[in-house]
Amino acid sequence: MSIRADEPRSGGTGGVPAALVFEGVSKHYGSTLGADSLDFVIPAGELVTLIGPSGCGKSTTLRLAAGLERPDQGVIRVAGDVVADKRRFVEPEKRRVGLVFQDYALFPHMTVAQNVEFGLDRLTRGERRARTGEVLDLVRLGHLSGRYPHELSGGEQQRVALARALAPRPAVVLLDEPFSSLDESLRAQVRRDTVATLKEAGTTGVLVTHDQTEALSVGTRVVVMRGGVIEQADTPEKVFEQPATRFVASFMGDADFLPAHVHRALLTCEIGVVSTVPGWANSEADVDVVLRPHEVALQPDPNSPARVSSVEYHGAFVLHYVTLASGRTVRSWQPHTVRHPIGTPVAVTVAAGTTPTLLLGDRAITSPPPGSSLKPRPSVPLQLS
Amino acid sequence: MTETAVLAEAGTPKRRPRRSAGAGRPAWSALVVLVAVVVAMPVLAVVLDGLRSLGSTTPPRDLPGMVLTTLLLMLGVAAGSLLVGGGLAWLVTAYRFPLRNVFVWLLVLPLAVPAYILGFVFLSVFDVSGPVQTALRAAFGADVWVPEVRSLPGAILVMSLSLYPYVYLLARTALIEHTAGTYDAARTLGAGRGRALRRVLLPLARPSLAAGMSLVMMETLTDFATVQYFNVQTVSVGVYLVWKGTFNFHAATQLAVLVLLFAVAVLAGERVLRGRARYHRQGSRGQGLQPQQLDGGRGWGAAALCAAAVSTGFLIPVIQLLAWAAGGAARNPGFLADPRFGEYIVNTLLVAAVTAAACVLIAVAVGHGVRLSGGRFVSSAAQLTTFGYAVPGAVVGIGVLISFAALDDALEAAGVPGGTGLLITGSVLGILYAYVIRFLAPAYQAVDSSFAKIPMTLTFSALSLGAAPRRILARVHAPLARSGIAVALMLVAIDAVKELPIVLLLRPFGFTTASVWVYELARENFWEKASLPALVIVAAAILPVLVLVLQARSVETSGKVPA
Questions:
Q1: A232, A326, B123, B441: which could join B389 in a potential S-S bond, CB 3.0 to 4.6 Å?
Q2: A170: distance to nearest CA of chain B, Å?
């Protein structure tokens, strides 16, 4: 089956078909759920990160896209062509999907150049040479083309793996935790290089990671998965600032949850008034409020029932654990110069300008839940006796 | 069964679950299943035919005797091997004494002398006309009592001395490798050396001892050449004699079913003895048991014990064979240039080479197929291809005969006059088929352990780079598995050179190999003539033993030196 990237198909925008589309894709392993009715569209040229705790289905998603698993249900498209549905299944070697693994998976018995040429066997010898030189230059390894993988450093091996995957011009490159076997010191540099290379090559990338910082800093979009289900797929900012679920809020960064109440747009909880909620003027509802430690302000206050219960020094910042009157704990980042001793009574407030996320059950809500509306506020407040 | 079975148990870690390119490759899956069917067919044929003909033929008159003899022989050899192999393993592991480091690997050498060679050398020395009894008669008169050498105890003694290295190797691996961390833990919990031994090491070594004994019993069961020197009538001998004497299919088949039952009993027994234990590598890091110095007389006593085992199992027979060959050559210079000798060697090498090539080709195809197709069904089929190693030669042989007979009938029914004719029964094809069934296991184990070292991600990468399965086999899998392929070729070829029962049963008229020749000459007491082909076989068989020695030594170092 020939695969053409130039044919516009559904799921794309502006004439160019989306690089990768999942429509209701499910995969079970026996009774375990690998992926449950996944839907997403990855437009050409984007770099999407896929994140979740282990066993969340992110690797299954990658394997499904690569053709290493056959979906039980649903449709998968690569560059506009259906590669898997009820009737069809395109084998991995016939999909235009590149793979980069955590262990790089370089062929140990081939040189760097031979590794890169492996995927170019349909080209003439001259074309093969040229393309190999091109992608090796792209990752700045042209001078090492005669080396064997074991003669390279970890970072260099990673770049060869990327060059090898890019050589056949895949519609999408899938990167399975590509940086996790690198040293901490090397990782940031290799990550920047990889992102730059993918951008330069104009290749769509899907990067699987379990590192929250990596997911937020690398991707143009972030897909958060749990239990085979997509919890949220959005820009990094949205995912962090407006998490769609309780899980996303706690998984993508630190978060504490406090029971809260909205009454006529005023959000209150144990620590007092948190903020106003625009659009909730005529509502009354019990919710949970998501407090991120960097949004929580502390002020020593001998009258406050809240006490500092533990302090962790993190270098640039100091993390304070504060036990509230109810026994619940909230955390607060303080600059490294601030250190309230354990037992200090502190007043807990929310930093000005914060719009905290509200949860009803485990899902975020942005508009008042049904059944919460009050009668429009009379012009004169009723005096309750 | 072969050294490789030990290799697999002792050397490579147990199979771990692995994901394959689970999308499915019907053609490759079908190939794996086909191989499994072809391998399983003869054994299935034996079972079916045996059940169908139940009661239609009268069993041999001495059947109960045969069963009892088989049972006694197997239990005797198992006990003997446990005593010798387990005892020696304990000795070289727990104690330090003169020459211990040399004995550690010398003790493996008896594996290179097949029982049917050790047996006739033993007889030549201890039988009525041998030097020992002659000397006894000279000293004490013609009526001096000596135990009957050609007897069940004689067979048990010889087979134990030839087979004990299986137990020795597995016991030693268990003592060094599997138990080090646990032993350390026991000692830190306050157990003394003796208590740690009784309560920790021995229970942990039990599965390995059980595995070693089951290997020994399977070898004993499959033999029907050695035991005939000693006039021991086992069920396997019965199969051979009934088939060669009467050509009565059904009677032979029923006996073969009996042999199969024994094999199943051995495997079941191993399961029971092993209990729920598995070959864990947990806690393999650690100091483990530290050998204690044996001083003076006790030290030399230990060395003498080891020397006795190595001498009787290897040195004395090899020296005796060399002496015969040299003596024969000295008296008759033409002795070495027997024209038949060349022919039989060529036969042997040819069969060995073809068997090795066939087994390795199939093993590589199966390994590749499993990797591409995955799935529980295909993996089970791949496992099934290796079960021939546990099927005694007599069963495989009769099964091949029945299968070809059925094929003949089918062809005749389909209108092919004469069926396969003499194409198969009149040629070595039957032998080759039986060899493949029997030796696919060592080939597959060697190839598979190489495949297991190739990360799945490598296969996935190759696929995603557009390489079709055949190209991956040629460019990635085969080159990366080449060490396993080389080992498999060598092991199978050497097993084929040593193999005797299957050739005896299946050889076409006039076809003789080196092992058959040794057997025939030895049965007629032509010791001197038998020495040369026997030496050739020992020389070939010593190669895999050296591999084992290297393995044993690497276990030694990895187990002893903390990384």
A1: B441
A2: 9
